[in-house]
Amino acid sequence: MRLPNATPRPPGELAELERIWDRPRGWRIISAVNNNIIGIFYVGTALLFFVLAGILALVMRTQLAVPNGGFVGHDLYNQLFTMHGTVMMFLFAVPVVEALGVYLLPNLQAARDLPFPRLSAYAFWAYFVGGLVFFTSIFFDVAPRAGWFMYPPLSSTEYEPGISADFWLLGIGFIEISAIAGAVEIVVGVLKTRAPGQGLDKLPVYSWAMLVFAAMIIFAFPAVILCTLLLELERAFDWPFFIAERGGDPLLWQHLFWFFGHPEVYIIFLPAAGMVSMIVPSMAQSPLVGYRLVVLAILGTGFLSFGLWVHHMFTTGLPELSLSFFSAASMAVSIPSGIQVFAWIATIARGKMRLHTPALFILGFLFIFTLGGLTGVMVAMMPFDWQVHDTYFVVAHFHYVLIGGMVFPLFAAFYYWAPTASVRMSETIGRWVFALIFVGVNVTFFTMHITGLRGMPRRVWTYPDDLGWNTLNAVSTGGAFVIAAGVALFLFDLARRFRPFRTEQPGNVWNAGTLEWLPSGNYQTRSVPIVTSREPLWDQPNLAEDVKEGRYYLPGAPTGGRETIVTSPIRAEPQYLLRIPGPAWSPVLAAIFTAGFFLLLTVKLVPLSVLSGVLAVAFVLVWVWDTDPDPDHPPVAIGGGIVLPVYATGPVSHAWWAMVVLMLVGGSLFACTVFSYLFLWLGNAEAWPPPGAGLPHPAWPAGAVLLYLAGAGAVLLAGSFLARGGGAGNWPFRILLVLAVPLLVAAFGADLLGLWRAGVRPSETSYGAIVFGFAVIQGLYVAALVVMAPYTVARSFAGLLDARRRVTFDNTRMLWLYAVAQGLIALALVHLFPRLVG
Amino acid sequence: MRRGALGNRFVRTSGRGAGAGARRVVKPRRLLALGALGGTLQGCAGVQSALDTAGPHADRVAALGWAMFAAAAAIFLLVLALALFAVFARPERRRWLGGRVVVIAGGVAFPVIALSALLVFGLSTLRALDPPPAPGGIRIEVTGRQWWWEVRYLDAEGGTIAISANEVRMPVGVPVEFVLKSADVIHSFWVPSLAGKLDMIPGRVNSYRFAAGRPGIYRGQCAEYCGAEHALMAFFAVAMEPAAFRDWMARERGPAAAPGDAAARRGAEVFLNAGCAACHTIRGTEAKGAIGPDLTHVGGRVSLAAGTLPNNIGSMEGWIASSQHIKPGNFMPSFDVLSSEDLVAVAAYLESLR
Amino acid sequence: MSRAEMPAGRALVFMAGGLIVWACQFGLVYAINTHACSFGWGSARIGGAGLVQLLVGVVTAVALAALLVLFLASLSRGEGEARRDPAIRFVRGMAAAVAMFGALAVAWTAVPALVSMPCA
């Protein structure tokens, strides 16, 4: 095969590439945005939270080592278990898999970086600052104490008057936003920035897993964002979404929370399973058996995991048949796990498993995860669940699933991929780490199955000494310290050997087949290979050498800045060259001020919080200002006769995809709100709207509809003026876009005013609360557009927006039309639905 | 079965006892010296184990559980054996295991058959759990409160026959319907030896019917995290022979006994004057408080403080004087201002209320 | 840019179609039962069969029909370059497999309606 570029390459080409992709030195590394650097920061921070949450668990286990223990009191214990769950789920598990995705995906797909490196940096810093401040609440006795699931009414103002619940709601709500930012990045990264030829049929299983992972975040996280928002509205303004006396329903929280919470488990598991599907073939030196079946399993898991949320509500007294549907879905979701387990076993059987540390962790994973999966099928049977629900049996079950399904693969991944970032970790110590953790986990948690069956409930800070739980608990505590010893040993080895950001690497130490083992630097690979196999390094001879010498695509940096090849989502054909932004302080500052906004709001420093929020928005605008580069740069030859444009708009562009993904997030949030509305209606159908809060005269919503449509029309018309080009349409474009803003605000205001005049009050009944809840959601979009429209006009004035260079306007228009569509649906639901059913 | 006619209907509660004014907020104290608690539970008879069953409901669930355990253990060992075989067997012997057929057989075909069987078996168990409705059967309304249980025995029309706390008594062999409510946060009603758990949710009424198979004292505990003292919110289900139950009920529905001796008389006075009556009711006396448990027949109960202490005069004194040490954060203040004579008297009086 | 590239959004939805059908069926049957129990027509019967069971049956039948259509559509070969391209063939094969898996999930979801009481 003829390679795209001839060698020798021009002198200075490599040096130029290295200069452009060099990381900021010294403390300036904070401004770095490259995935290799942010990825390592991200993984490291997640690991820190793993250790911190683990320490909380050790304190709890010490308290429970003996009956009637006096090590900690009930109040601290309740904070400890709340924080342990919250930190493990929100600050460790999701971030760490997202972090590894940020680090690994460009490596696996031979992209120079992810498409939105500054977004990754923002997501990381928001998480870093927000997470650390959130964690410190435990030292000031203001940590949340209502459990990581935060069920109202226990988390409502009446039973939790302090700020600790607000810490949870705002802190976590905000970290979820960071997770969503990361998910947008990952979806677009997997679909659009791959090595040429790496079509969907050759996509690494890990990329598949991350794609489905990110898609699941997009559909699951809005549910928890909504319920945290509703509960915070209830706490701050007394809007009774969950207060039974005023028509609210505590179960609404449980539905929304678990609609997020159950997929969450698989959100954590899928990336881990993806890692296993990369590590097993490499350690066994044989391609994965049943690639298509495994991809099917990943897709199946992604969907079916959304049909399980009531699983967590089997004891709430819902109708039997409703519960049974969820039992059935629980059966179905275990098929994909079965497929994957047998695919791994078959791959091991076909190859020859080399029992290095990563392989040991994989085998440990198979052992623990299989056991956890089987107890999962057991708790999916309602009668059995009624006994073990909220007992230590369930604690045992989900620790088997989460530690087995996620922590073990993570350790395997760490030992496996460490050489791509630094050096190989010590094999001797690695075996000890594995042995300690494996034994510790089984001693701790297998015992808990029995403790639970013998009647010990969860979340108890102490227990009496005559119920036969003493020995079991002592054993569990002992096991917990064995796990801790293993983790400590791992940290010791890490501190001793792991030195990231070095340029020399040990190379393809496992003789693996995938692209992350190509010789690489911060710019990833010297040239971007054509991929013709799932394991290119096994099947494409001399690939590493050719890539390193620059014989493949894009051996330099022809535009003089950072760039990566954007490929088509299905076949991975090169489409255009994406110029990506370099290091910047604005994402870091935007993240810090976003965190400041939420945290200051928690401690009720409202003016400071607003200031912080304004600064956050300002820095976001600074950061995006130079992300829509000059479209007039001539097309660039990347080799092999392929000449790529360096600018793209519309459905080809990465920006369009990101916007679509963002609107899916919005749509999901809105769908959850609609669900909440209908759910509350079901409980109050006889009085909807309740007496005293009538429906506004139809003129109000009709006026709002007209204003929405007029605003949307103005935006569309502005677009057609922009398209004329040549500057002639500039003024009409600007005027129309500015004019559209008051129309949008007026539409929003007309609806609110109508409701208010009809006597609807958000704090009186759940009806008023949810109707105004729609307004809050819609208000977010109105506020965003009120910022985006002037920003777009400003770019027009600055000469940065014209008929070709129009991504900013395209995005604003797309969001505008979305907001109008959502507003119209909400109007129909609020004003027509009660008239239809009433 | 688990939910009767009231199930899932949205029921507005009157807010009785749940308003902020009705609750006395005692600042939770961090308690380091819990020695007082150690060992005090000795003698509280009763088991709390899903493995030690004493009723048809729990029996059936245990049978389902054991069947699933056996199947799960077999599957687990098989997977483990295959994995080890794949790693360690000689290449020519393990070759058959390395194909797509294995993935389809082990990952699709086998689970589909096994899980279909389990689904039908499990759902049938669910139906079998439904005891035949017993017309005119016993209904007991249990209301979860932070951190104790209010118990009302209902007549056929839903009127209250008798009020008790932290203890349900039921005749053996007859399905009893438990009407489950909450007055504050979510709790969960669970007696593992007799049946699984069902939540008590504000604004909803859940209903659960099950029977005890043999006489005995079975421990139950709140299974939904409900705040500070969730760990110390237990109760006892006492299953009695029907005749004994009838006798007990005849006494339980009546008012409290008049104090029998001088000490008890003094105790009754202290009870009214020291503030106890602000929260507690003793039927037949002036004490009509509605915040804490009804104490009309408190001397006859198995435990004190929702399963936290055995019921005897010593623990009664201890509880009154230092309730905040024994169960920190609960809504009863420690009456450590009482003189020791008053304390002994009031404890003696309460213990005489059988 | 290639002529044979499928519109990506459509291809992704097509590939996951079988499971999207399941999600619709699952959501619908759950909503049906919840409404039935809330409004007290959980034990209503039409011509010997329970109303809830009947509705679940209808939804399931429609879902299975949709899956059949998807499955047949995924078998059609396409033309020209699309016929040979491995990535596009992969998408079609995956759509077929997902439709089959979706059928299993849909069938299982309907099983409880045959066994369980709607509102007990």
Automatic annotation (TrEMBL), chain A:
Family of this protein: Belongs to the heme-copper respiratory oxidase family.
Keywords per UniProt: Cell membrane, Copper, Electron transport, Heme, Iron, Membrane, Metal-binding, Respiratory chain, Transmembrane, Transmembrane helix, Transport
Membrane topology: Multi-pass membrane protein
Main location: membrane
Protein's recorded name: Cytochrome ubiquinol oxidase subunit I
One Gene Ontology CC term in the entry: plasma membrane
Matching PROSITE patterns: COX1, COX1_CUB
Organism, as annotated: Propylenella binzhouense
PANTHER family reported in the protein's UniProt record: CYTOCHROME BO(3) UBIQUINOL OXIDASE SUBUNIT 1, CYTOCHROME C OXIDASE SUBUNIT 1
InterPro entries: Cyt_c_oxase-like_su1_dom, Cyt_c_oxase-like_su1_sf, Cyt_C_Oxase_1, Cyt_c_Oxase_su1_BS, Cyt_c_oxidase_su3-like_sf, Cyt_c_oxidase_su3_a-hlx
UniProtKB/TrEMBL annotation, chain C:
Lineage: superkingdom: Bacteria
UniProtKB keywords: Membrane, Transmembrane, Transmembrane helix
Stretches that traverse the bilayer: 12-32, 52-73, 94-115
Name used for this protein in its record: Uncharacterized protein
Native source organism of the sequence: Propylenella binzhouense
Organism classification: Bacteria, Pseudomonadati, Pseudomonadota, Alphaproteobacteria, Hyphomicrobiales
